[in-house]
Amino acid sequence: MMDFTNPPLDPVPACEAWFREAAEQTSLPNPNAMTVATTGEDGRPSARILLLKGFDAKGAVFYTNSESRKGLELAMNPRASLLFHWDELERQIRIEGAVTHVDEAESDAYFATRSRESQLGAWASQQSRPCPSREDFKQAYADMELRFEGGDVPRPPHWYGYRVALETVEFWQGRDARLHDRVLYRAKPEGWDIQPLYP
Fold first, then answer.
1. Average pLDDT for residues 101-127, to the nearest whole number?
2. Is 21 helix (H, G, I), strand (E, B) or coil?
3. Which of 20, 44, 114, 178 is catalytic?
4. N or C of the chain: less Cβ packing under 10 Å?
C-alpha cells in the first residue's frame, strides 16, 4: 500500500508495484489494459483501450498500426494521456507525456512473440479505415496466409511501438466517503516534483 502521507520519491517503482498487484490480486482478464487518449489536428480528443506492453523509467510502451486513427493523430501531435483503472483495488494511475517510437529491434522482438494469427491480422487489417464487408477482411487475411505460407511473418513496416514519456504520473487510491488519496508527480531535470491533490 502506498503511503500517501509520505509518498515515494520516485513514481516508477510504485507504478511497477501497482501493475504487479493488479495482475496478482484481481480477476481482471487484462490487468494491463489502459485507456490511450490522443488528439488530432482538429484538436478533437479520441480514446481507446490498449494493452501496456512495457514499462520503465523511459516510459510506457504500446504497439499499434501507425496508419490507424491513433497512429495518424500521434504523427500530428506526438503526445498522449494514459489511464489505468482497477475497480477491484479502487486504484487509478494517470500518465501524460510526449510520445516517441520504440526502436525497430524492440518492435521486431515484440512482434515475434505474437501468435501467427495476430501477426497475419496486422498485415490484413487496414486499421480504422472503412471496411466494405467482413468478407473483404476475411479475404485480405486469407491473402496474407498465402503470402507468408511456410515462412515466418515479418513485422509490417507500418506496425511498431510507441513510448509515452513519464512527464506526469498521478496515483489515485479510493477511500470511504470519497475521501480519496491523490498524488501527482511532475518530472524535473533531476528528480520529481511531488504534489498531493485534493480528491
1. 95
2. helix
3. 178
4. N
